[in-house]
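sanity check both lines:
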Amino acid sequence: MEGEMNELELMRPRVFVSDLIQLGDIVLTTTPDPMSKTIRKAIGADISHAMICVGKSSVIDSTGDGVHARNLERLILEPGCAGHVLRPVAPLTTDQLHSIIAFARAAVGTRYTKIGAAKSVLAGFVAGRRQFCSRLVAQAYHRAGANLVPDADFCHPGELLNSAALFEVPNVLRDLNAEEEARWRENVDHVQVMRDSTNALLREARMVSSEIESLNDIDAYLVDHQEADDHLVKSSESFKVSGTVEG
């Protein structure tokens, strides 16, 4: 154990080389968090989380905060934590790529399901609209006609890592030097402001209808329930004006 700790102390935090990552790529990561360790042990893999690249240095994933966009350049892998970038063996068509990105973006705000994540290795469990990380990735590809795993509704990150439909992109990680690390840890994650605002808006919307999951659901709900316009439209517009929610 002491030797392992000394080895970790000599290792540097790492970040992804964003210029090597393409739209539609799948980013797999993990953290030193005890829950991440439990997931890695349960699935027999060195990672515990999955994301989809939807733009330059932008990924979408599902965590306890729900489905949100994140800045890939803000993601840091602590010493000893693995990271992989996967890409389809069969190149995606333009239509497939657009479909995958649109699916992920449409899911923004959807709540996370701990039950679904826990049951992801069990067959026959009924799928719902709530998301967890590997389901979001697999479903986005499945809807685009690209099957990565046997069951897109219930899979875990290890299945994505071992999928024959994907190959690993090499040399996508680099070490942070001490100066870069200090600067990175001091910087504020401005995308977190957007995530917090999105969740606040959706909490208000769900007080009106418990069936609302994503931002897109708000517009759809208002089409059939115009009486909610005053409350939800004003809330939605206030967030859009602040620049924290994409239109």
Observations:
- The chain has two domains: 14-175, 189-241.
- DSSP finds ten helices and nine strands in the chain.
